[in-house]
Amino acid sequence: MPTPFALATGTAGLATLIAPADYQVQSSELVQVGELDRVEVDDVLVSYEFNMQTNEMVTHKEPNPNAGTVHQFRAYRSRGAGDTKTVTLKEPRS
After folding, report:
1. How do residues 66-79 score in pLDDT, each as one tens digit?
2. For 79, phi and psi rounded to 5 degrees?
3. Which of 20, 53, 54, 60 has its CA 20 to 30 A from that of 81?
4. Closest CA to 64 of 33, 40, 31, 34
């Protein structure tokens, strides 16, 4: 599973809360610094094989039953703590 650093830009060195878009923050000290839409991929990894003699890894994928589903998130940061630096999703790898 990728870490937030691999998925989003604008988070390095700054404490950032990324929560589902319908989450209601309770503090006026949290400032929204981004809106993120994550779309589920067409295929999901279900297993892999690693050949220790050839040093090759083979992945096995299956169709994702939730392909195309959009999950919406919002990014928040404490007021004054990098609250002008926007958080965005990185482009997916091909």
Report:
1. 999 999 999 999 88
2. -55, 130
3. 20
4. 40
